[in-house]
Amino acid sequence: MLTFIPTPIGNPQDITIRALREFEKATLFLCEDTRETKRLLHILEERFEFNYPKVEFLSFHEHNGEERLNQIAKRLKSEQVVYVSDAGMPIISDPGQILVEYCQEQKIAYDVLPGGTAVTTAYSASGFKEGNFLFYAFLPQKGSQRSSVLIELMNKPENVVLYEAPHRIEKLITEIVEIDENREVFFSKELTKKFQNYYRGSAKTILEKFTNKEINPKGEWVVVIKAKKEEAKALYVDDILAFDLQPKVKAKLLAKLTTKSVKEWYNELIK
Known about the structure:
Layout: E1 2-5, H1 17-25, E2 28-31, H2 34-47, E3 56-59, H3 65-78, E4 81-84, H4 97-106, E5 110-112, H5 118-126, E6 133-138, H6 143-154, E7 159-164, H7 169-179, E8 184-189, E9 197-202, H8 203-211, E10 221-225, H9 237-242, H10 247-257, H11 262-270
Parallel strand pairs: 1-4, 1-5, 2-3, 2-4, 6-7
Antiparallel strand pairs: 7-10, 8-9, 8-10
């Protein structure tokens, strides 16, 4: 049995009781980074009623995933195995997807525990009213591909959620300004941690805050870019007159744009 367990995105107190119990039952830990997982478990042992498991910890990430699967295939069927990413929900922007596919192909029982993720936490904090959004995770790091992807995302009809590293966050807001300086954005850093902060405003305003050192770029960032506003297109009398419509329909439309009544427009159209 393989269980995917979400871990706190920052504050250790966000761990669930169910996650703690699964940790204690596990006979094998698969970790995106074994050091990060062990650090978390030691914190949990110190602060909560949790017994640190004396079991094997193996790294499982995008570079060794396929090789590691060959080593642990039998254990996935016979043991209580857990997979833990560095922070947040496994599989979301995470190499755990390889494991899910493998379990489905090999008919191995697996479960995913519910838990926090930076995506929904940041979007909830943004205050943007739209319930739908597009999550893209990390942009390409450099080159024309990065620019083209960002332009494409900023022209989507949905709000977009991105992750960004501290050493590229100022580059990102600069790129957004170059595309649309008036676009509304929401920047959140260090979610659930001591130095958590939210910043909302036009891209130009946020860039000025970075330039003026009002915002410290250090920390992990989640960025929400509001969807491009659809420009309202005016409809004029001449446009309606040019439409191939029945006089009654035209008269009703024209009456809404002018002070003439439907009857007056109808009589004029049939002359």
